[in-house]
Amino acid sequence: MSEPSRPRLAITPIPALDDNYIWLLQADDRRQAACVDPGEAEPVLAVLAARGLELTAILITHHHPDHTAGIAELVAAYPDALVCGPRDRRLKGLTRVVGEGDEAAVPGLAAGFRVLEVPGHTASHIAYLGPTPDDDALFCGDTLFTAGCGRVFDGTCAQLAASLARLAALPPTTLCYCAHEYTLANLGFAAWVEPDNPARAARQADAERRRAAGEPTVPATLALELATNPFLRTGEPAVRAAAERFAGQPLDASPPPRIEVFTALRRWKDTEYD
Ligand SMILES: [Zn+2]
């Protein structure tokens, strides 16, 4: 028996603010759409109007304004839209609070997303993995970036190391839809950490070509992140050695989440790179 066919989910970036991506999710047989982390409303409203789409859901990964400032204006235009996000008093306007293991069913898309709690960048940051049952798209906000990771604001380095270790264990074919275009800047730091990693050098050339052509470098496969992103490579001897040179002392090499190596890399990038 063949499986019932599911609509293909088209996922496109809407560039916003300086370097944010608001992800637009659209089932190819419907006129409804959802968006992830609208840091502003105007570019989303423009795309919806141009494509004749109705916004039925807004998914939020964390409370920072560059991910949420568009909520009120979008809801004013689409009052029935579901607004889904983590429990956090700083996050206003949610109609559904979700946490670990919840499935966020997205109205109008015939698609659901599983919620992963991934604290560290903020204490209440979540990610969405889906659409179920394929689970091949990860909306990871500011937790995992292409070739990097988020800074630690009100979470901790230990939390972020554990969250990244968790994401690193997802299938390597998972596409990572982070919320910023930071790839080239992150690869510059990756070159400090692993100057001799050929996969990093190849990614640098590819990312430069794409940016020169005005194309996004996001999403990227988790496989590419595992090969090039120093924050997912804390188990590599060369990465640990580089972190130890910065820290000026030997660092714990035990299995993931390798908090000491991760923390040294994060501090190194924060204090000396950007
Ligand atoms: Zn953020």
Architecture overview:
With 274 residues, the chain is an alpha/beta fold. It has a single domain (9-273), classed as Metallo-beta-lactamase, Chain A. It contains nine helices and 14 strands. The protein is globular. The termini are far apart. It binds zinc ion (ZN).
Report the bound ligands by name, code or SMILES.
zinc ion
Mean pLDDT: 95
Radius of gyration: 19 Å
Spatial order of the strands in the main sheet?
1-2-3-4-5-6
State the main characteristics.
274 residues; alpha/beta; Metallo-beta-lactamase, Chain A; globular
Show the helix and strand layout:
Elements: E1 9-16, E2 20-27, E3 32-36, H1 42-51, E4 54-59, H2 65-68, H3 71-77, E5 82-85, E6 96-97, E7 103-106, E8 111-117, E9 126-130, E10 137-141, E11 144-145, E12 148-149, H4 157-168, E13 175-178, H5 183-193, H6 198-212, E14 220-221, H7 222-228, H8 237-247, H9 259-273
Parallel strand pairs: 3-4, 4-5, 5-6, 10-13
Antiparallel strand pairs: 1-2, 2-3, 7-8, 8-9, 9-10, 11-12, 13-14
Helix pairs in contact: 4-9, 5-6, 8-9
The structure holds zinc ion.
Short description:
The protein contains nine helices and 14 strands. 34% of the residues lie in helices and 23% in strands. Zinc ion binds next to loops.
